[in-house]
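Running this now, will post back.
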Amino acid sequence: MIVVTAAGGRTGAAVVRALWSRGEQVRAVVGSSRPRPELTALSADVVPADLTDAAAVEPLLAGAEALYLIWPNFDPGEAAGAVALLAAARRAGVARVVYHSVLRPQARAMPHHAAKDRVEEVLDASGLRWRVLQPCAYADNLDGQVAEAAVTGLFRSPWGLEQAQSLVDLRDVAEAATVLLTRDGLDEGTFEAAGPERLTASRVAAHMAERLGREVRAVDAVPDGPVPPPEQYASCCRRLMFDHYRAHGFTGSPRVLESLLGRPARTFAEHLHGLEPASGTGELP
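Update: finished.
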């Protein structure tokens, strides 16, 4: 049995689906007791638990072959909370832990990167058998922008018009996660997951235009006002993240991901091809 935390989120649900497709038994830890039909349809054992209460999570780890540790995105409690869960995993005797980190966690100008960097440091000295997955920004993050572009003909780039991103398809990230959770010989490894292209905003707009069959123009979504204070952690993280992307881009090599997958990583065009039309927006051809 494999435990996936934060399984009610987009990443966690994708990992559960990828494990289900391989016939793995999954315990999906979610943040509330509301129904999760998207997980129960995958035969997952859905269990609500507060991740900040490591003592409550620890019994859920008993007998687990592996733990995929995701902490909710832009949450200020990640550094302390994830470290506490690592200790719980060791006490519970979890055989393998895979931590969902981020590409270049050492870029500490972004607070959520710094938090993941601290967790990786603790993981290295934890006594656990571990692996780390470090994904780039998801292509899926722009799906809402595709629907908007279908109507307006504009792609509003939050990282400006000059720098590039190596956007990765979440399905590839989830498949790589299943490899790290189930394949032997990868312990103490850190694995980047970047998409196969350097995509500037203009290239993203061109791909959207081709998919939508209409002109799409990239425009710079310049942020308003100062950086939010640290007390507004999520808003502060998002702003500092896009400021970093605007200045430096966020790109990486797909070689490690493709080695895990045993095939080429999905391109942005391939990601767009798989999108379904959104209700109330222009239809995708």
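DSSP finds eleven helices and nine strands in the chain. More later if anyone needs it.
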